[in-house]
Amino acid sequence: MDIKKWIEESIEVKKSILDLDDVIQEVENVIHALIACYRDGNKLLIAGNGGSAADAQHFAGEIVGRFRRERRGYPAIALTTDSSVLTAWANDYDFDTVFSRQVEALGQKGDIFFGISTSGNSKNIVEGVKKAKSMGLKTICLLGKDGGVLKGLSDISIVVPSDSTARTQESHIMLIHIISEEIEKTFQ
């Protein structure tokens, strides 16, 4: 069994993040953007596919509910949770636009679209970012590998430097927890 090997790999990816000042700066930029979003009375729209869809829901739960402190809830919607919207739109049109359609319906200028993609190339996240930008939403992406297409497309990109989907997702959750913690500290 390779249990220790998997733990060591996860630690190494996280150490690589710690050593990349540009990644740390982007995490700070995300925190500042979300704090400004909530101070201005806006909301967060989050999307991802597969494990990243679960991460989107997890992030929304931390923001709407609570992370570690008692506080009021803040508006965050995981665009991955309405199975009727997702399946109706994907069936009648296509899956590439399931998030852009929801951004169109739910987003308002000043909101943030937060896409999660371990490859950085998820077509429906790309379309979500494009729609959000066209509507005046700030766009943030949590990515893996080299950041893919989304690195250059979104306003702020945090790229976890790993080609492993599993190690990237583990780091994404760590970063989501850091962001949630900092938001709570600001608004407690």
Tags for this model:
188 residues, 8 helices
Question: Which helices and strands occur, and which strands form pairs?
Answer:
Layout: H1 3-18, H2 21-39, E1 44-48, H3 51-64, E2 76-78, H4 83-92, H5 98-106, E3 112-117, H6 123-134, E4 138-143, H7 148-153, E5 156-159, H8 165-187
Parallel strand pairs: 1-2, 1-3, 3-4, 4-5
Helix pairs in contact: 1-8, 2-8, 3-8, 4-5, 5-6
Give a structural overview:
- It is a single chain.
- The chain has 188 residues and is α/β, with parallel strands linked by helices.
- The chain is 58% helix and 13% strand.
- It has a five-stranded parallel sheet, with helices on both faces.
- The longest helix is centred in the last third of the chain and has 23 residues.
- The chain is globular and about 45 Å long.
- 40% of the residues are buried.
Binned strand content: 5-15%
- The ordered string of helix (H) and strand (E) elements is HHEHEHHEHEHEH
Tally of individual helices: 8
Cα-based radius of gyration, to the nearest Å? 16 Å
Lateral strand order in the biggest sheet? 2-1-3-4-5
The quaternary state of the protein chains shown equals single chain
Count of DSSP E strands? 5
> Which consecutive residue ranges, at least 5 long each, have pLDDT under 50?
none
Q: What's the rounded overall pLDDT mean?
A: 96
Structural class: alpha/beta
Between the first and last Cα atoms, what is the distance in angstroms? 44 Å
Which overall shape is indicated by the principal axes computed on the Cα atoms?
A: globular
Q: Give the biggest beta sheet.
A: 5 strands, parallel
